[in-house]
């Protein structure tokens, strides 16, 4: 992969192509290739090189010309004619390149032009090639915005095959650093020489290597997946260590900076608001008690925005069971410290969390979906008991009833009254003693299925009563969240999944940065409107979720996601962090990082461990 955009430091007179016809271009235009700043040799590819190739390989010449045409300076043939080749400097320029991977290849005129009957189809070509672009505008665009191409080795080497001055074959030397390629061309006949870089070099780092690392990281991909793709493509890539170095020095500091900047602005807005309602929930990186990381999300439910994510490692708090409380505590402390006044917090109903919030005097409401899920799970069990099969007929109604109870009530007692009325209703009794809800609202209607009614005192009724009216459920129903639910946090948790590939074990900082990326993605995209067809109709899709066992759901299709945060981060990485990493890296170094989990265990000497295994095996 390399950038076609070239830079130059020669002082020839440049003229733009005045016409876009093919014959004219191939006759009059030479392509100016770049000279790196470290190279003092004039570099000039003559028009005749191109002409020869144009004749021998139709397809490639056309493509090559087209590609170079849009993004390189064009030079008039008078300038070419008057230029004289410079002598090679005897010393090789010393480039402090970032990598030990330094592959040198020597080859001398390895290519032979072959006739090919593949025809060039102008219709498939990029239409932009016919219009010479404003070259000065191209010249000034930032490195991260220059487009790149995948180029075959045979195609690029063809350009260096023949001496542009004396037209005899040249000695070619190439050097590769990750995705970067440098070609040195030397003509033994006339001493013409030049060096060509496939990518701009920043300090000692090829821009494309850094850009690829950033692109992989910022899109939530795994380096190892990219490595496999590149290997299958026979595309050169750098090593994992290089990726990690880019991450540590530039990418992670940029993510932390960007997230904190965004978060500061958000917190200032929240601090001005009188009452803030947040939703909070923890996501463990694996189910059960084996989780290594827990991330606690605080979401502003009014604007559907992630305002804070706290990452807790299980060994910080003595086991994964305590991660949720710790994450919540840190999140609340953080909001407090920034002057945000909470009206209430909507969460699930972990007893540990209930106790903690009560002691901290934070008004807590429960998410209706979490309660419904808990009740449905218990009822599902009860249905399976002998003699209780009848209950199954009520499952759907009970589920709807809890959502209705929550949505239609304005106070705790009203919620409880409505909830408890369900037990009467199932006995075909539709007036109730509680004055908060004296009668069912469904009117007098006769049900066709008279067998569904339950009689008081029977086993199914007693079992149902036990589940629906147990003390804890009734207490929690009273505190069902009247405002907002936390389903948006579940959605955010599924976004996190996309940024944390499952087959990769992340270090604490890597995990934290990926959470920040997920939050940046969510906040940019959560408010997307529904997509519409060309005719202006809203778009829906029908799905069959596995959990619904054959029932379908109709979902809104949203407009395409955007990735402005990725562009912003690339700008930050190339324009600021790479140029002066110290302040950004220092910020990252101040983040407290807990010791790795495996650090707790005594590591035996490897030799010892092996010998004890061998002796056990032989016993
Ligand atoms: Zn020569
Ligand atoms: Zn009723």
What can you see in these coordinates?
Among the domains are: 2-200, no CATH class; 368-478, no CATH class. The protein is 42% helix and 13% strand. The chain has 21 helices and 17 strands. It has helices spanning 22-28, 47-56, 58-71, 77-82, 135-140, 153-158, 207-218, 223-233, 240-272, 323-337, 351-359, 368-383, 395-408, 412-425, 459-468, 471-478, 487-499, 508-525, 564-577, 582-589, 606-618; strands at 2-3, 29-31, 74-76, 103-108, 148-149, 171-177, 180-186, 193-197, 201-202, 205-206, 276-284, 293-300, 305-313, 342-347, 364-366, 540-543, 553-556. The strands form six sheets. It has a five-stranded mixed β-sheet with strand order 13-12-11-14-15, with helices on both faces. It has a four-stranded antiparallel β-sheet with strand order 4-6-7-8. One zinc ion (ZN) binds at residues 163, 165-166, 168, 187, 189-190, 192.
Brief summary of the model shown:
By secondary structure, the protein is α+β, with helices and mostly antiparallel strands.
Strand content: 5-15%
DSSP strand count = 17
Q: Helix segment count?
A: 21
Ligand inventory reads: zinc ion
Shape: elongated
Widest sheet: strand order?
Answer: 13-12-11-14-15
pLDDT averaged residue by residue: 78
The major pleated sheet works out as:
5 strands, mixed
Task: Please bin the fraction of helical residues.
Answer: 40-55%
Distance between the termini: 57 Å
Low-confidence stretches: 1-120, 125-137
Topology, pairings included?
Blueprint (H helix, E strand, L loop, with lengths): L1 E2 L18 H7 E3 L15 H10 L1 H14 L2 E3 H6 L20 E6 L26 H6 L7 E2 L3 H6 L12 E7 L2 E7 L6 E5 L3 E2 L2 E2 H12 L4 H11 L6 H33 L3 E9 L8 E8 L4 E9 L9 H15 L4 E6 L3 H9 L4 E3 L1 H16 L11 H14 L3 H14 L33 H10 L2 H8 L8 H13 L8 H18 L14 E4 L9 E4 L7 H14 L4 H8 L16 H13 L1
Parallel strand pairs: 11-14, 14-15
Antiparallel strand pairs: 1-5, 2-3, 4-6, 6-7, 7-8, 9-10, 11-12, 12-13, 16-17
Helix pairs in contact: 2-3, 7-9, 7-19, 9-18, 9-19, 9-20, 12-13, 12-15, 13-14, 14-16, 17-18
Bound molecules: zinc ion (2 copies).
The site of one zinc ion (ZN) has 8 residues, from loops.
